[in-house]
Fold these 2 entries.
Entry 1:
Amino acid sequence: MISQIVVIVTTVKLLFIPLYHSTDFEVHRNWLAITHNLTLDKWYYDNTSEWTLDYPPFFAWLEFVMSFVAKHFDPQMLYLTNLNYKSDMTILFQRLSVIFLDFVYVYSVKRLSSFIGDGKLLVFILLMSCPGLLMIDHIHFQYNGFLFGILLYSISHIIENNCLIAAFWFAVLLNLKHIFLYVAPVYIVYLFRAYCFTISSVDGVHTPWYSFSLTNLFKLAFTVIFVFGLSFGPFIYHIPQILSRLFPFKRGLCHAYWAPNFWAIYNFVDKVLQTIGTKLGLLRIPRAEASMTGGLVQQYDHAVLPSITPTMTIVLTVVTMIPALIKLWHLCADRRYRVLSFVRCMVVCAACSFLFGWHVHEKAILMILVPLTFLSVLGDVDGKQFLILTTVGNYSLFPLLYPKNLFSIKFFILLTHVALAFVNIRTLYEPAKVKGGRRIRVLRLPMLRQIESLYLYGLIVLCVYDNAIHALWGLDKTLPFLPLMLTSVYCSVGVIYVWLCYYYYFLTFNVSQVPTVCSVNLAEKYKKTS
Amino acid sequence: MTRRADPDKFTVTKQALLPGILFSLLVRWCVAAYPYSGYKKPPMHGDFEAQRHWQEITVHTPVLKWYHNTTQNDLQYWGLDYPPLTAYHSLLMGLVADWLEPESVRLFASRGYESDSHKTFMRWTVFLSDIYLYVTAVLCICIDAERVLGKEPKEPKCVLKRTDISTTLFLLYPGIILIDYGHFQYNCVSLGFFLWATFFIIAIKNDTLATIFFVLALNYKQMELYHALPFFFYLLRKCFIGMPLGRGKLSHFVRCFNKLAVAVIATFVIVWYPFLKGWEHIFQLVHRLFPLDRGIFEDKVSNVWCMVNVFIKLKTIYSNQEMAKTCLLITAMAAGPACADLFFRINIKKFVPCLINVSLAFFLFSFQVHEKSILLAAIPVALYFPEDPFMCFWFLLVSTFSMLPLLLKDGLLLPFIASTVIYTSFYSICLKLSQPNSGYFSIFNANRVNKIVYPNKKDSSHVLTFLSLIFVISVVGMVLLTVGTVFVKPPPHLPHLFPLLISAYSCVHFLFFFFYFYYQQFSLPMCLPCVSQKQKRK
């Protein structure tokens, strides 16, 4: 059935070709032109367009390779000064390149889902129909599917205990898009514990320091350094310039649309306090700097609460990650379940970075969602948290596709995916028929508690407000950014809730209480390969 | 694909229903993002402009002037030529449009009005009509198909009769999606009413409600006359059933018949009420509905007359009047046997095949046929799908393909290909659900497909193998013709070469299907429908 599903999903992607695309389309076109026309040493200096190259070198090489195919579609798109050029052939080429590179993702998903017992096909369908990826890659325009394909491929090798290959592919991934640094600590801890110590554990708790293998460490280090050398070697004299492009700390705390993270709530509280303060006459703030959601990426000082600096966000992120990493170190002692713990820890750490990071894009929610989708059939808590997060997280991406005529498309993409998830994940955990009278569950979603269901229903209200009532009340003139702010704040509540629950679940996870409801043949797989 | 038994261990329950329906709605919206007919093509635009114009007319002129040529209502510019229910529907939507975006329905000033928000609005009107009438009707019919199955536990369960699968498959049929959401029409309304009427006949067996809904369908689009004969003969025959022995036969018949007659007349009166103020209004309306002067066909239609026209120029030799009479006679001859069979050898299972046969007869032989009219034959075929998936799927593919010239004109090539591929893939999934070891292209194997319906049949028949071969050839032909139409430039002296080839190709198919479904209908035995209510009353 896999081939049919791949065909269906790919066809839907094809249908999206002539739809709206964001400025990222022009960004990638510009990069094609830069890499095609300029010599290596100028790639990271060119600023003909405002969309300068700010991905690591491997991605630039990818664009370089693609530009040779692009030449056959329409050579004009490769002119450096041809800004905002979008002929039909250009659109066709760019869209097809995304769809074509997505087959990496398809392959990895197929590989990954083959490790699962029950719900194999379900995971495949859920990952293939991930609304975030469909919306961002195929309407908004980016190459996330390809990147996540490599991430999943790397994870699949971790599951098979091929640590070196996994490390290699993760290093490649880091050199394609540096946002995956978010989960790098998980890889470091895991590889160090699971690969550099040859004996897993004696009693399951203490670390057998004597079994530390220097050879393995060297192998690992060599692999990673080799990849980085390959990537940055040609640019050896331009590394400071590249780094300044890759990590633009000059940008603000939040992206144009607030990502639904901790800072969204922080800003919101600041905003509310400011309004109350001015109303009561306690504060005097010049009106000019009152807009933070103005769509411009720039620095901003908070009015009431202390302003946030990049260092603070980094410290906060690291501090929140540390407990999870320590837990992972201990969980790695058990051979059978350490791969699952690895993926779980990846979810937690991605969530930490997402919530507390500096200038987080809303698209980064996919880094939490994609691994969590894989876990959704492997444990009831995972499944439950996945259900909440997939609804909230994907909903929070809606503002990205703002044209009105896209509303129904994104709405039905999400609904289809959510319906698939809600009706099918339940069947894995809940007994088919409860003996004795069925409890009446008014408006309660499967597997969720009443309050969580209500929260998700709140999204419908929010959706109606944002798309209809706000304009009907005429507020779109005076408060144009209110819907965006409401969406981010409302969604961030859900994301933080999921993060807290999941963090608690991960920290209290005890290997002796492994879920018995679903059969995981990961352990068997592990035995076979090792 | 691996050949192990059920490698995916995926148990689809009825719970695939919700995702399936939502997915089919997603496909609808994806198609809706494409241009409509006559998009940015002044001065006449296309069907979209016609619908918009009707809203403008119905909102701004009095009811009695809707069908008359007045200074405010220029009938030459997309005059209203559908029955009153369409006009009321337009009025309703027009009032909403007037509230949301008054510019779009301003009298005269709004001609050729095009804006993104208005397009979105119009798409939403189709979508809501679709949801309320067509989707619900399909859902009810499919639920009933499974319910009937539940009553007969001996019969092995057929995948295509499961509610979720059959509903999704029905809703994904590309033809109606492309015409309603791409080209822009409201076929979902008339076909929705028609499906409701069918539902009341085959499931609930409530003849009065069926009559009312069918009259509503007829009052939305006069094209529903294609379906009128089976309804008429079936309901008429039912009046003869349950007659008391001895005396009172006539009164029983009159009572049954009267019930239906009252329903028909009452519905007609209600719908036509505003026009009943004088005969001239009614005549004008009827004249608008059946314009004899528009010729035997427009553009290239895959029916018999269009084929004959290649060799004998019908339009020049015969007058429209003569042609109309000939058409009427031949259509009656083609549809007659099916109706007679339904009447004399009544069987509720014959109702849907009879609908197919009669509507195909009308499509192939009647006067003034549009290429979109194939939908009227395609929807009964989609109803018949679970009984004979192989042939029905083939028919539905051809029916979509026959509209290709029209779709190309509207710039809907990509949606055409995509929705067809999605439909085929989903059908392939159905096959895989019933036979886990089948591959993607097992749909071409008639023997295998027929095992879904008759799982107990072991041996494969040569006829079916032969049919499979023809199916493959037919699909390859369709693909080649599509490629040819898109990429090959026709010779200058034959500009309409490819549309004509497509019509001819589809027409040959439709004739073949016509005979096939006739055979299917006649091979069903007679079986009196039970009339339980009346027996109880006795």
Entry 2:
Amino acid sequence: MPEPVPSDNVIPLRAARPEPAPEPDVAPAGDWERKVAGGLAFLRRRLTGDYEVDDFGFDPDLTDHVLLPPLRPLYEKWFRVETRGLENVPDEGGALIVANHSGTVPVDALMTSLALLDHHPANRHLRLLGADLVFSLPVVAPLARKSGNTLACNADAERLLSSDELVGVFPEGFKGIGKPFSERYKLQRFGRGGFVSAALRTGKPIIPCSIIGAEEIYPMIGNAKTLARLAGVPYLPITPFFPLLGALGAIPLPSKWIIEFGEPIETAELGGAAAAEDPMLVFNLTDQVRETIQSTLYTLLMQRRSVFF
Amino acid sequence: MPPRVVLVTGVSRYLGSRLAAVLQADPSIERVIGVDTVAPKLDVQKVLGRTEFVRADIRNPLIAKVIAQAEVDTVVHLNVIATPLGAGGRTAMKEINGIGTMQLLAACQKAPSMQKLVVKSTTAIYGSSPRDPALFTEDVEPRSLPKSGYAKDAVEVEGFVRGFGRRRPDVTLTLLRFTNFTGPTIDSALARYFSLPVVPTVLGFDPRIQLCHEDDGIEVLRRSTVEDHPGIYNVGGAGVLLLSQAIRRIGRPSFPIPSPAVSLVAQAFRRAGLVDFSPEQMRYLQHGRVADVSRLARRFGWSPRPTLEAFDDFARDRIGLLSPSMIAVAEERVLEGMARRRTTSGAVGA
């Protein structure tokens, strides 16, 4: 057979990989034909608008078949993401995942989504809350909605949580993602604790999530502030390779990633909507989440052998 | 309490005539009076049955006389016009909407017989922006108030209605914020838009849209008239369609236009009298708008059909060049071809 025999250290990453060659006289429909039929059915669904989106514009059909697959090699091969504490994320019911934000471009958001979809036993879709800038940009805005994200505001967070969705939020926002390389792994201010009050009001658990590796993908050594202001964006990164090497400089560095989901902080017993109106409680809880993520970050950094391995 | 004498404004127009036709068929209602500036068309007159038509301009204080003499107890205000194409220009439209509502409400306020007021408004008052929550509830404060067109008129009308509510707390007040209407017979800006052979969209945007079926619109108005449902309600089908999805379902090609050129194209369409798209609606084509319709379902104990069904009912007779059935046939052909090849190659292999 001309087919090269895979060597021992190649481990199939996903069960649903297409089989390499169709056997000529195999019974009714061969595997590749089923694939083609599946592809055609998908194409027909897309062309005729025969799919459903939820109230937020989330299109699972498109997300699972088109938007996420190209990210898998990045997740598996490039960043070699390791997940820990997935058992802390419930199989069903709403929960709020709060994570640190970094990396100049929100790749960490995509990788966290993929971690939960591919590696969580219940294959859960993460519904991220994004800044309003995301939803005003052409191309980006519809993609963000179709992949299940929505505007970071309490109304949307509470609506998603109470409809038992897994919601992800990066309370540092642009302050976190656009911080200089010298401040890596130092958590920025956690907004005004809006995410905590959303969790309190809906009585859903908060799951702290710590991500390491994302800080090194685009080490931001400078910020073209004037240009950024002109372009109407919060920052314009200068990395050792960008814009120096042009498009080549836009390739992220292959750092080794670890995403750890911490123990859930239950909010159901804290008093619901009344508790959300108590600023002291909200601040304390916000601090508790922030401290948990920060200390986990330090622990993970200690365990990491090097940035790239 | 069921109404005795109902006055419907805008009775020569689509919603007004259909509502009057339904109300006059209800024997518990003594009189149905329809008011408009122009007489209803002949085919409309037939369905109006025992509706009494009064040719009057709601912008004129004479309307007070009509209300007082007939001892009207329920007023359904539908003469809030959505598009200037049907009203004789934007100035006339603004006057009918603003001054008309003021005069009508002034007349209602003076009438001791008044018991119920039902007003048609629109979810367009929430505006469309990237900074708003995904779903608007009735009591949400929109980030940006609409600055022009129908939406601005509707904000004004709602202001007058609130004022009326303060001055006449004894009157049951129902304010219905409709999403875009759709259906086989209604003529709306959105219907014209989807009927274009090639549908222009804004490049890089794909808004969520929500629709209300015309029959459900009439039903909600009827229920608000004969039952008591005080309050503000978003009226529309549950669920959303993406604009691209809707265009595909109606089998038409879309033509994305970069946003800087959008207003030019919109102007050209307006001049040609094809579709009238105000700047508000252009923003709608970028950011969309979806309202939370759960309050309606809860308090009326009934809900309009979902957006998807409402749209399909509209699209059924308007399928364009790229019809979904044609695409399904093409898919079948390919699969059949593959099956044929399989049998022949299988025969060769064996």
